[in-house]
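Customer escalation, tier 2.

The customer says the design service returned an amino acid string that "doesn't look like it belongs to this structure." They asked us to rerun it and document both sides in this ticket. The original structure tokens are below, unchanged.
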């Protein structure tokens, strides 16, 4: 029996350097819907961050076709200046057609890191990097996929 009853996945929080660049990527290029945007500061944030005087901006975006959400947070903590080493985080976005997604992102000026890769009859996938250097996987589930 689990210690905690988890009801569903809720969100991923990403600390970003440039909120506007991140919004152009996640909202404009990937089609995520802004659910909320707010300035954040105060005693509750200080308690969560374990330091006084924390403040910043948070934007919540809903992933198309589901309930999952991404929170973009700017200013609350220092973001590593070495792109690609910010976090050990990779997250995956499901697409209906990996080849079409690859072509559309390329046409929009977002360079995939490799051609679409197919793994047997389970998945086709490729990666791009966001404005802060995080790898994002675009995955098409094929007939043999278990998820």
């Amino acid at each position: 029996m689990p210690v905690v009853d988890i009801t569903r996945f809720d969100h991923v929080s990403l600390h970003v350097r440039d909120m506007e660049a991140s919004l152009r990527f996640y909202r404009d290029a990937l089609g995520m819907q802004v659910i909320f945007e707010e300035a954040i500061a105060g005693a509750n944030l200080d308690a969560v961050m374990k330091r006084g005087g924390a403040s910043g901006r948070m934007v919540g975006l809903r992933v198309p076709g589901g309930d999952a959400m991404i929170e973009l947070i700017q200013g609350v903590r220092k973001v590593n200046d070495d792109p690609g080493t910010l976090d050990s985080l990779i997250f995956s976005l499901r697409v209906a057609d990996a080849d079409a997604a690859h072509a559309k992102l390329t046409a929009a000026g977002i360079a995939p890191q490799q051609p679409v890769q197919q793994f047997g009859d389970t998945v086709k996938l490729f990666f791009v990097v966001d404005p802060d250097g995080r790898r994002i996987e675009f995955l098409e589930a094929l007939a043999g996929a278990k998820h």
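Tier 2 assessment: The sequence is consistent with the input. The chain has a mean pLDDT of 82. The first strand starts at residue 11 and ends at 16. Sent an explanation to the customer and offered a walkthrough call.
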